Fold:
Amino acid sequence: MVPNTAKKLEEAETRVAGLESWSTAAYGALKQSLKEQKKLAEKLDDLESRSRRNNLRIYGVPEGEEGNSVINFVENLLRTEKLVSDGTSTQIQRAHRSLGPKPGADAVPRSIVVCFLEFKTKETVLRNAWQKKILIKDKPLGFDHDYTAAVVQQRRAYKDIKSALKQKGIRFQSPFTKLRIHWDSGPQVYHSPVEATRELQRRGFTVEEPREREGFNAFALLDQLESASPWQPVHRRSESGAIQRTILLSTEKKRNLKENHSQGRTTPINGQAIDVTRIDASMGS
Structure:
């Protein structure tokens, strides 16, 4: 009876060890794959951002206000509002509404994307536009960089934080995917919405932490992958007439085993593991 039980147990442990080895290898391969995907996604977003560096977006222009030529409309707007110096060529290469169906009369109008030949011209226009209030039909226009979709999502996560700061009259700036808050003690830059939110909460603001952004997020997937693995690989080896098994134990399991051992129902615990060095006839009972 005992030899058969020991043999079956050894076979089961061999199979489990094989599955654990495969699972460990698969886990490592998946983790590496997620890291590579994250790296490629970041490179792709960087390339797209660089391709947009000469672009800017104009928000709030009513649909149809541009007439038959968006380029001519933008050219006239820049000169009328003196966003470029007199006699300076704007060198606009392209100008069009953002892609998508035309919205209804009461909906938010599509933004206008403007591509300049030179980066410095675009920067001059933006800098001048941010220093004044520009209106069309008594409605303000907004000027900003042409960000990628990924960057727009990251910037959008600061929305509640910015609202809370505006209510308190605290000045802030949002360079790219960061947030610079001008506290009384001096300006402070925060590199993520979570970091900024926790600082506001520490200062007594009522702000909820932003939800995880949708789409590909390698960090979140890696966390899910690790939390879904409740065990770690263990070392097993069989010897003639005995099977030695080392099991990594959680804190709760160790506590239970210590209680059982005090009642004579288990072997002594050594650190974070137990060693079963002998299987005798009591296993069959």
In short: The chain is about 45% helix and 20% strand. Residues 158-209 form a domain with the Rec A Protein; domain 2 fold (CATH 3.30.250). The first helix runs from residue 2 to 51.
